[in-house]
Amino acid sequence: MDQQIAAILLAAGDGKRMNSSHQKVCCELLGKPMLRWVLDACCKAGMKPEDTCVVLSSEPRGVCELLPDGCATAVQAERRGTGHAVRCALPFLQQAAARGIDAVAVLCGDAPLIDEAVLLDSLAFHRKGGFAVTALTANISDPGRYGRIVRENGRFVRIVEAADASEKELAIHEINAGAYWFSIGYLIDALPLLQDTNAQGEYYLTDLVGLASAQGKTAGAFCCPDDRVALGANSRRELAALNRIARGRILDRLYDQGVDIPLSDGVMIGPDVTVGRDTQILPGCQILGNTVIGEGCIIGPNTRIIDCTIGDNCTIDSSRLAESHVGSGVRIGPFAQLRPGCKIADTVKIGNFVEVKNSTVGEKTSFAHLTYIGDSDFGERINVGCGVVTVNYDGLHKHRTTVGDHAFIGCNVNLIAPVTVGEGAYVAAATTVTEDVRPDALAIGRIRQRQLAGWARGKTK
Ligand code: UD1
Ligand code: CA
């Protein structure tokens, strides 16, 4: 479905009150920067990156790193109001119009709770009404500093900023959420007409509603069912409040999808995480990024998973996993770590104090305790004893270790890479393997034990 829509995202605010070395829109909600929430809502509503334009300040600390490839940008060198910010994106608007885009959303990069459902519902309302501009509004008990929605005989005629409002207008509870749909032709024509003759000396984007009425055009007010779309974060306290709201929404979605979170203490799950039903998530778990977890798993307590795919019926206890793929029936932990680039097949066991990095591991292979596996390819049904180490780094370069199916690696073995242990081979405990081991061979390399009879007498007791 091609909607012919585009969006301008305002992100030029420096957010002094956030007290951050980064721009305000970089601050994170459940591990994801606020601006990304808004960009992703646009994407899910059907916009391609080139249909979105982010308005940056001249010193956009940390923002550019968040933008998807192809995303357009405009620079607002001086902060002179929301209307001025959108005016800085005029070249983008002209190009969008030339491409056949007919409706443009203007959104705040620091109001992350807007989602694609509200965007698309308000777009349908905007189109059906044939409005020049549609403002998203909300009814709130404490309208504070928000712009007020002014109606005359039921008709939406203008938005008045709190700083410019009369007593009577300040008593209005329907507020401007700060998100809009514009007819692109109207926006391009009207932006140059904005004036800064108001209490704040700013070019108000909101004046475009009154201007449309004055030109005999109509404006729509789309009252959002959930008033929290208007919420932005200007301080860490407000950010924490948004985190609580977003977290509650995600937990509710997961409960409805059959995920068991018996006690949500310390549980933080990102918005792009998918969890299968009957999976249990125990206290102290952070599950972030584009993680997918299957059904019937037990995750936690105290586990951190980022950007991983995990199959069904796994147990992951008190461990950390990043950028890895885990099959079904895998047992991990307690106190294990999968660093980026692991591909773990079904029913593997990765026990306590085991670290695996950039490695593939075949079905039913077991690393039960105290082991480091780096840059390795382990086959199926291999038993790896306690304390085995792949010696993958020679001080300059990393090298790979390969171990064939059914091999047995005894306790405290060092595998000095690059090295290959063949299928079914047996490496005796404490061996330091420096040469390839042939399939089905025994490799043993350790100092033969000596015994001096009676030597300890008088020393040990
Ligand atoms: C604006 C609306 C107000 C609405 C409120 C919702 C105007 C004039 N008023 O208030 O009716 O209720 O949002 O939150 O639009 N920004 C820039 N450049 C600027 C000014 C702002 O990029 O020169 C960005 C900010 O970073 C922020 C957004 O625009 O993301 C809104 O600005 P903010 O100052 O928070 O809102 P107000 O102008 O007070
Ligand atoms: Ca302002």
If you had to describe this structure to a student in words, what would you say it looks like?
The protein is an alpha/beta fold. The chain has 8 helices and 38 strands. The chain has a 15-stranded parallel beta sheet that branches. A 9-stranded parallel beta sheet has the order 13-16-19-22-25-27-29-32-35, with no helix packed on it. Strands 5-4-1-6-10-7-11 form a 7-stranded mixed beta sheet, with helices on both faces. Helix 3 runs antiparallel to helix 6. The chain is elongated. Bound molecules: uridine-diphosphate-N-acetylglucosamine and calcium ion (CA).
SSE layout and pairing:
Blueprint (H helix, E strand, L loop, with lengths): L4 E6 L17 E2 L2 E2 H11 L7 E6 L14 E5 L5 H6 L2 H9 L4 E6 L7 H14 L3 E7 L8 E5 L2 E6 L6 H4 L3 E10 H7 L16 H8 L4 E5 L12 H21 L11 E2 L4 E2 L4 E2 L4 E3 L3 E2 L4 E2 L4 E3 L2 E2 L4 E2 L3 E3 L2 E2 L4 E2 L4 E2 L4 E2 L4 E9 L2 E2 L4 E9 L1 E3 L4 E2 L4 E3 L9 E3 L4 E2 L4 E3 L2 E3 L4 E2 L4 E2 L8 E2 L18
Helix pairs in contact: 3-6
The structure holds uridine-diphosphate-N-acetylglucosamine (UD1) and calcium ion (CA).
Gist of the model:
The chain is an alpha/beta fold and 461 residues long. The strands form six sheets. The chain has a 15-stranded parallel beta sheet that branches. The structure holds uridine-diphosphate-N-acetylglucosamine (UD1) and calcium ion (CA).
Shape call = elongated
Structural class by secondary-structure content = alpha/beta
Count of separate DSSP helical elements: 8
Major sheet: 15 strands, parallel
